[in-house]
Design goal:
Layout (H helix, E strand, L loop, with lengths): L2 H8 L6 H13 L1 H16 L3 H7 L9 H11 L5 H12 L14 E4 L10 E4 L1 H21 L6 E5 L7 E2 L5 E4 H6 L2 H10 L1 E3 L3 H4 L4 H14 L4 E8 H24 L10 H8 L6 H16 L5 H5 L5 E5 L8 H8 L4 E3 L2 E2 L4 E4 L12 E3 L5 E9 L11 E3 L3 E2 L8 E7 L7 E13 L2 E9 L3 E2 L6 E2 H18 L2 E11 L6 E10 L3 H14 L3 H8 L7 E5 L3 H11 L16 H10 E6 L4 H9 L1
Parallel strand pairs: 1-5, 3-6, 3-7, 7-8, 8-9, 22-23
Antiparallel strand pairs: 1-2, 4-5, 10-11, 11-12, 12-18, 13-14, 13-15, 13-16, 16-17, 17-18, 19-20, 21-22, 23-24
Helix pairs in contact: 2-7, 3-5, 7-9, 11-12, 12-14, 12-16, 17-18, 20-21
Organism: Parasponia andersonii (Sponia andersonii)
Family: Belongs to the IAA-amido conjugating enzyme family.
Protein name: GH3-like hormone conjugating enzyme
């Protein structure tokens, strides 16, 4: 196929819903071939860059045939991490206009959220980044509309937030990837193509104050409640956060709806006030209706809030996998029988896969890799034997393989080569191949690779922690009128023996005996062999459960927002070594409990 035809094949921008599905069916049917062409396009675009010249030297990429190019590339260019390319990105940020990573000048840098590794990272953002975001949103909308059709011209209640942008020393614009997208032409095009329009004007999205933006999102969503077709945010956390705020704000919101005003105590930003006041008008009947519904909902602990207030909403749409899974219980509480649809799989570095089965619950969702967005490799991973010595993580890895060679049931770490200047970049995400859609793999997200609780020879992943916390929270709910709001953890190695510390914020009251039982249950629920052996021999101390005061995790959110993160991008860190976060947690701790799960075994050992 000629180059122009390949570009056509890989970048169909037709507005017709069936066309975007047909486009994906085509590229997924020939995913292996499309991947080779995607790699060729990336290398042809950027072959003159400093980074690629270092490895390819005088080799003419155009003269190398498909499969040979794939083999040549992976043999010459080494695997990389962000630490490897960070000095090069910093040069670009400082104003170096030479083609360092990309042939085209980079004018914008994305910031990762910083909630995974404790600090934000620069990642190049280009027009291609915005275009792929538009394409995956259109693709997702096409598949969702087959199951949950919505009215053309309907409204979306979107809890979306931009962060503040700033300039680097070299004049490049820096902000989160979501901020760049919301400011792009593609965001406007997305609404036109999908025939669905957000309730809030751009001034609400980009106010820079998430509390004021949330109030306005809710107010406008209420005023347009009969027109709202679905509710969405980037992460499930943001939706839960918004409706938790609604429980406290509904009376003030009803006053504003009744009088056509905007709270002067809540909303202080002049541009934000003007943009909202230009839209709203008094609606006493709607205010009275919402008041009646909210009084009923209060008696039900807000169960079924979403369908009660937004009766025409068809579903709730957000990223609900990985670190978002702990929020599903609360989200289901608000949604009642309304379907929860898991959004697509991506990262600041690249979009990866689309959810083609929107009717599946989030716990069972898979993501079909989109082979035109980046060139993907997969590092086969194998769990280490339980009696291994201490190592950096719990996987043995093999050499990376291309997308066309992955196998069902195997776990892999994803490696990216992108149009934006990342080459054989280790993403750090662990996925499992659950099946195939035509010729492209469907991935199940497992965990972040380096997020480990470890003290000795123990290795517990984010997923292991979530399972343990879920067991503890089930005990909390069954034995007390309380629920888990949020949690994080820390491996305390400052005191010997080292031990795990799990921080809980809870809503409601729980007796100390119940919390002691929860602590014991979590400690006993870790099944990692290294942990169990270490606990039995007391080389790891008893698990510590710390109960923090209400609002503690909002303080952590405020810390990240204050350092440039956007609410749309925020994820509560599940395992942290960040000293600022630990200080917030420890200052706000009101009760501490230590597990007795292994006390009997210790007594037996001491007797011997």
């Amino acid at each position: 196929m000629e180059s122009a035809a390949v570009n056509n094949y890989c970048n169909n921008k037709s507005s017709n819903e069936n066309d975007v599905v047909s486009w994906f069916e085509g590229v997924s049917e020939n995913a292996g071939w499309v991947q080779i062409q995607t790699l060729r396009r990336i290398l042809e675009l950027n072959h003159g860059t400093e980074y690629l010249k270092k490895w390819f030297k005088d080799i003419e990429i155009e003269e190398v045939e498909g499969c040979a190019l794939e083999a040549l590339y992976t043999s010459l260019v080494p695997l990389s991490t962000h630490a490897d390319i960070e000095p090069l990105i910093q040069r670009v940020a400082d104003g170096d206009t030479a083609p360092v990573l990309t042939q085209q000048p980079v004018t914008t840098l994305s910031l990762s959220s910083g909630t995974t590794e404790g600090r934000q990272k620069y990642v190049p953002f280009t027009r291609h980044s915005a275009q792929t975001t538009l394409q995956i949103f259109r693709l997702a909308a096409a598949y969702i509309s087959r199951v949950y059709p919505t009215k053309e011209g309907g409204r979306i209640l979107e809890f979306i937030y931009s962060s503040k942008q700033y300039k680097t020393k070299g004049g490049l614009t820096v902000g989160t990837a979501t901020t760049h997208y919301y400011n792009s032409q593609e965001f406007k095009i997305k609404q036109e193509k999908t025939k669905s329009f957000t309730c809030s004007p751009k001034e609400v999205i980009s106010s820079g104050d998430y509390k004021q933006s949330t109030y306005c999102h809710l107010l406008l969503g209420l005023l347009l409640s009969d027109q709202v077709e679905f509710i969405t945010s980037t992460f499930a956390y943001s939706i839960v956060q918004a409706f938790t705020a609604f429980e406290e704000l509904w009376k003030e919101l009803c006053i504003d709806i009744r009088e056509g005003t905007l709270s002067t105590t809540r909303i202080k930003l002049p541009k934000l006030r003007k943009s909202v006041l230009d839209i709203i008008s008094p609606d006493p009947n709607l205010a009275s209706k919402i008041e009646v519904n909210c009084k009923e909902l209060e008696d039900l602990d807000w169960f079924g809030l979403i369908p009660k207030i937004w009766p025409n909403a068809k579903y709730v749409y957000s990223i609900m996998t990985g670190s978002m899974q702990p929020y599903l219980k609360k989200l289901r509480h608000y949604a009642k029988d309304l379907p929860l649809v898991s959004a697509d799989y991506g990262s600041t570095e690249s979009w990866i896969g689309a959810n083609l089965d929107p009717c599946l619950p989030p716990e069972r969702v898979t993501f079909a890799v989109i082979p035109t967005f980046s060139y993907f490799e997969f590092i086969p991973l194998y769990r280490r034997k339980q009696n291994c010595n201490k190592v950096s993580d719990d996987f043995i890895e093999e050499e990376p393989i291309p997308l066309s060679q992955v196998k069902v049931g195997q776990e892999y770490e994803i490696v990216l080569t992108t149009f934006t200047g990342l080459y054989r970049y280790r993403l750090g995400d662990v996925v499992e191949v659950a099946g195939f859609h035509n010729g492209t793999p469907k991935l199940n997200f497992i965990c972040r690779r380096k997020l480990l609780l470890t003290v000795n020879i123990d290795k517990n992943t984010e997923k292991d922690l979530q399972i343990v916390v879920e067991k503890g929270s089930e005990l909390l709910t069954s034995k007390a009128k309380a629920e888990l709001v949020d949690f994080t953890s820390h491996a305390d190695v400052g005191n010997q023996p080292g031990h795990y510390v799990i921080y809980w914020e809870i809503k409601g009251e729980a007796e100390e005996r119940v919390l002691k039982d929860c602590c014991r249950e979590m400690d006993a629920s870790f099944v990692d062999h290294g942990y169990v052996v270490s606990r039995r021999t007391n080389s790891i101390g008893p698990l510590e459960l710390c109960i923090v005061e209400r609002g503690t995790f909002k303080k952590i959110l405020d810390y990240f927002i204050g350092n440039g993160a956007a609410l749309s991008q925020f994820k509560t860190p599940r395992c942290t070594t960040n000293q600022v976060i630990l200080k917030i947690l420890n200052v706000c701790t009101t009760k501490r409990f230590h597990s007795t799960a292994y006390d009997q075994i210790k007594e037996q050992i001491n007797t011997i």
